[in-house]
Design goal:
CATH class of the largest domain: Alpha Beta
Number of domains: 2
Distance between the termini: 25 Å
CATH superfamily of the largest domain: Pseudouridine synthase I, catalytic domain, C-terminal subdomain
Number of strands: 10
Number of helices: 5
Mean pLDDT: 94
CATH architecture of the largest domain: 2-Layer Sandwich
Low-confidence stretches: 165-169
CATH topology of the largest domain: Alpha-Beta Plaits
């Protein structure tokens, strides 16, 4: 019996060359596909809700695939986790409607970026945060966060994505951001953003530009001008991948 399955998984992206399977590289998608084949005998390429970059982590990435296997979906997490490296954990597997697709059915995604502010960052934390102990006007960053809320053309915050397929909205850079906020949590400054979709490196480019606001080299009006410029060269640098997490996907 062919089942359409929704797989929710978490991973430490530090040692992976991103989500997307690529020849000669260890990726999350490729590693998951290999585990599925070992456990079920089915050769499939699970489709993710989106492609996280090399070094980016996920708390609840979602993938979907069709399997003709006798193993009940509820038994697959344990079996797959035995076959997967410790850096990837399958949280749940459930049978879904035949037309469900992890990317095409997604309605919104939430990302979080973590910046560690103390002078010294533990070596056990360094792979999971961006260590930035230098002065920042965090209040100015919080005040500028809502500038990107709503529907906008985010070309200024989009890197060229050579792997984007023709079926992936290759023409428009319009995206809708539902919420955007900076928060202080003990030693960490975190940026949480929810939107209907995100362009290549978009969240990391937003963070890099908000940091310019924190440094005082850019003000709120300057952030607006960058958004309206629709030119990548107008925005700030790309923040490191290690601080970024895909938190959740809504359907």
């Amino acid at each position: 019996m062919v089942r359409n399955l929704k797989i929710t998984l978490a991973y430490d992206g530090s040692d992976f060359h991103g989500w997307q399977a690529q020849p000669g590289h260890v990726t999350v998608q490729g590693t998951l596909a290999e585990a599925i084949e070992r456990v079920t005998g089915c050769r499939v390429l699970p489709q993710g809700s989106g492609r996280t970059d090399a070094g980016v982590h996920a708390l609840a990435q979602v993938a979907s695939c069709q399997l003709d296997a006798g193993i009940p979906p509820e038994n697959l997490p344990r079996a797959l986790n035995h076959a997967l490296p410790p850096a990837i954990r399958v949280l749940s597997v459930e049978q879904v409607a035949p037309d469900f697709h992890a990317r095409k059915s997604a309605r919104a995604k939430t990302y979080r970026y973590r910046i560690f502010r103390d002078e010294m960052c533990s070596p056990f934390l360094a792979r999971y945060v961006y260590h930035y102990p230098y002065p920042l006007d965090e209040e100015a960053m919080r005040a500028a966060a809502d500038i990107v809320v709503g529907e906008h053309d985010f070309t200024s915050f989009a890197a060229v994505d050579p792997e984007r397929g023709r079926d992936e909205e290759a023409v428009s850079n319009l995206r809708t951001i539902c919420s955007s906020e900076w928060n202080q949590q003990e030693e960490e400054l975190t940026y949480t953003v929810c939107g209907t979709g995100f362009l290549h490196h978009m969240v990391r480019n937003l963070v890099g530009t908000f940091l310019l606001v924190g440094k005082g080299t850019l003000d709120r009006e300057g952030m607006k001008r960058i958004l309206e410029a629709r030119q990548r060269s107008a925005a700030g640098p790309t923040a490191p991948a290690c601080g970024l997490y895909l938190v959740s996907v809504e359907y």
